[in-house]
């Protein structure tokens, strides 16, 4: 390794307000060199300064991610996350030097689940905003601190989706508006977020995580990969709505069709299983005339979207207050025939947990255990058929957010355990 640079308390105090700029200056000095940035125990306690560094940290390449065992076994909490952000690789001029495919190739081959995250991009929201932005980081922390998942779950920062990738689904004028903030009040209200540069960059990373997960499974790095974000299925080619800026599943599916045409085609299509309580109207619209992508959507019949509802290949609306047994009966009856009829090669699972009884926007009445059984129905269908699977997060809006966060974590935890066990046999 060309240059090894250590940042520790003896060199730089994390209490120093100029740390961000010192890091910038250091980056310029060692640009395009191999590097390793380390810290000491003080890193775990100064989260305020860590947050200020996140914008720059998110731009660091991760071509050869540092493993915790390579640094210090005592790295925990915030310190552990920081080690993953400051990874072995090259510092690009701007943004990240990794494409979505390169990010997938850089992943350590894993017997369980590979997860990509973008919560190091912090989107500023006004006080009292109803979207639980903190749930992404909280879900990841639950997973990374779960001793049962050691060795079968690894997490990596998401790459940015490129303009070329996004253009496979979204109109050029819309991409321009999102990147520059040229959105009027009505457009921002439809999306549900006030525009900011952080929203644009996080949306790119969130979409990039799903694309990277797709590459990871189709390149054979792992059989299942996940985005601990994403599932933004209300985004249309020319506009966003319902807390969705870019349609990450649609973009990743389009990239798969372009780059893996031998595997993903009319004879072996892509299957999108959308189990969010709200119909994935954007995804359905995008693929309404493309038989290479099959959309299966099980949702609340009387829930959002009301005026922009579209038609999926399989649209199943459930009445308000549907509970575990009725929900699981419908899923068990309808999903297997979709696999048998279409014989997909690749599966996307939009695993929203807003069907939970505690959800503020859900109107259904599933329990946490019911959602867990739901997840296993999808995993069993893919494992028995040896199909690559990409998982995304989707909605979850309980108040307080703890119920949704636990259910989100269950999605990824159960996948890691199931696939880890299946591949160890």
From TrEMBL:
<protein>
    <recommendedName>
        <fullName>Histone deacetylase domain-containing protein</fullName>
    </recommendedName>
</protein>
<dbReference type="InterPro" id="IPR044150">
    <property type="entry name" value="HDAC_classIV"/>
</dbReference>
<dbReference type="GO" id="GO:0016787">
    <property type="term" value="F:hydrolase activity"/>
</dbReference>
<dbReference type="InterPro" id="IPR037138">
    <property type="entry name" value="His_deacetylse_dom_sf"/>
</dbReference>
<dbReference type="InterPro" id="IPR023696">
    <property type="entry name" value="Ureohydrolase_dom_sf"/>
</dbReference>
<dbReference type="InterPro" id="IPR000286">
    <property type="entry name" value="HDACs"/>
</dbReference>
<keyword id="KW-0378">Hydrolase</keyword>
<dbReference type="InterPro" id="IPR023801">
    <property type="entry name" value="His_deacetylse_dom"/>
</dbReference>
<dbReference type="Pfam" id="PF00850">
    <property type="entry name" value="Hist_deacetyl"/>
</dbReference>
<feature type="domain" description="Histone deacetylase">
    <location>
        <begin position="129"/>
        <end position="403"/>
    </location>
</feature>
């Amino acid at each position: 390794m060309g240059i090894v640079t250590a940042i520790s308390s003896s060199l730089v105090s994390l209490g120093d307000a100029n740390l961000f700029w010192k890091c910038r200056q250091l980056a310029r000095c060692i640009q395009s060199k191999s590097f390793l940035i380390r810290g000491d125990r003080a890193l775990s306690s100064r989260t305020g300064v860590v947050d200020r560094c996140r914008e720059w940290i998110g731009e660091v390449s991760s071509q050869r991610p540092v493993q915790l065992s390579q640094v210090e076994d005592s790295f925990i909490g915030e310190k552990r996350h920081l080690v993953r952000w400051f990874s072995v690789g090259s510092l690009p001029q701007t943004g990240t030097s990794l494409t979505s495919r390169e990010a997938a190739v850089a992943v350590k081959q894993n017997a369980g689940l590979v997860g990509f995250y973008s919560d190091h991009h912090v989107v500023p929201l006004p006080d009292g905003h109803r979207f639980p932005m903190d749930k992404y980081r909280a879900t990841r922390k639950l997973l990374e601190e779960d001793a049962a998942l050691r060795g079968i779950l690894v997490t990596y920062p998401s790459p940015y989706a490129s303009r070329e990738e996004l253009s496979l689904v979204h109109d050029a004028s819309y991409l321009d508006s999102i990147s520059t903030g040229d959105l009027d009040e009505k457009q921002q209200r439809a999306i549900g977020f006030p525009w900011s540069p952080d929203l644009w960059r996080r949306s790119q990373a969130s979409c990039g995580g799903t694309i990277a997960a797709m590459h990871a499974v189709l390149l054979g790095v792992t059989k299942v990969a996940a985005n601990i974000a994403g599932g933004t299925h209300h985004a249309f080619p020319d506009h966003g709505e319902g807390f969705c800026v870019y349609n990450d599943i649609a973009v990743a599916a389009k990239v798969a069709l372009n780059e893996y045409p031998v595997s993903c085609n009319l004879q072996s299509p892509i299957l999108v299983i959308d189990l969010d309580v709200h119909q994935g109207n954007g995804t359905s619209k995008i693929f309404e005339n493309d038989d290479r992508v099959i959309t299966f959507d099980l949702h609340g019949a009387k829930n959002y979207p009301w005026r922009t509802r579209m038609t999926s290949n399989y649209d199943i609306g459930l009445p308000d207050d549907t509970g575990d047994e009725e929900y699981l009966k419908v899923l068990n009856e309808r999903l297997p025939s979709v696999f048998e009829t279409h014989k997909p090669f690749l599966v996307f699972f939009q695993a929203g947990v807003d069907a939970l009884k505690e959800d503020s926007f859900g109107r259904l009445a599933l329990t946490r255990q019911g959602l867990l059984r739901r997840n296993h129905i999808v995993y069993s269908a893919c494992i028995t058929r040896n199909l690559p699977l990409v998982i995304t997060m989707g909605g979850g809006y309980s108040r307080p957010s703890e119920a949704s966060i636990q259910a989100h974590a269950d999605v990824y935890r159960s996948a890691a355990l199931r696939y880890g066990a299946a591949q160890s046999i």
